[in-house]
Amino acid sequence: MQDCPECRRREMLASQIRGLADAMLVPVARATGLPPELIQGFVEGTTTGAVAAGKAKSRKRSAYARKYKEAFKRVSKKYKLKNGKWQANGFRRAVKEAHRVAGGKKK
Is the pTM of this model over 0.70? Predict the structure, then answer.
């Protein structure tokens, strides 16, 4: 496989970053008295944990939201034109009827 200039550039940048990271870990290792490998593992472990903790937990949909979604899909066909576009005020009327069918309104 032949090396391209872009691959060489990326490899050079990666080696510079590795060298910079090592240069930062050695003084910390000296100050704490711990081996650099242990410190590197700790730093990498904490960053991956932070990324996992930063992901928001998705919320559970309510029973009403599920009923409304199903009702809207059923009702929306009535308020669309043959080419798939909404009729005049069709979306608004479909939303209203879907809420009524799903049990959101008394009328």
Answer: no
